[in-house]
Amino acid sequence: MTQDPGPPNLGNAHLTIMAFAILMVAIVALALITTLNRVEVRTASTEQPPGVTGLARPHPPLQRGPSEPTRDPRE
Asked: Which helix (H) or strand (E) holds 18?
């Protein structure tokens, strides 16, 4: 039988992975800072015009009553 050689000798692979991770964190942090620097922060007005009950714009009235069936435009 042969003996188990143990874990492979990776040399400085852990240092390379650590440097890559630090570089990625720095890139993401710089991108976030750059993005937030260019964003103009605005707040919406809480006042609504009279007659509005929500944020949706008003729709025109229906051409039929609720109990009437829909009409075929080809007729």
From this structure: helix 13-38
C-beta of residue 65 within 8 angstroms of C-beta of residue 71: no
Instruction: Report the predicted TM-score, pTM, of the whole model to 2 decimal places.
Output: 0.42
Degrees to nearest 5, angle at CA 59 with 56 and 64:
145
pLDDT in tens, 12-58: 888 889 999 999 999 999 998 888 777 676 666 667 666 666 666 66
- Residue 20 DSSP code: H
Q: Interior CA angle at 34 toward 29 and 39, to 5°?
A: 125
Number of separate helices (H) and strands (E) present in the chain: 1, 0
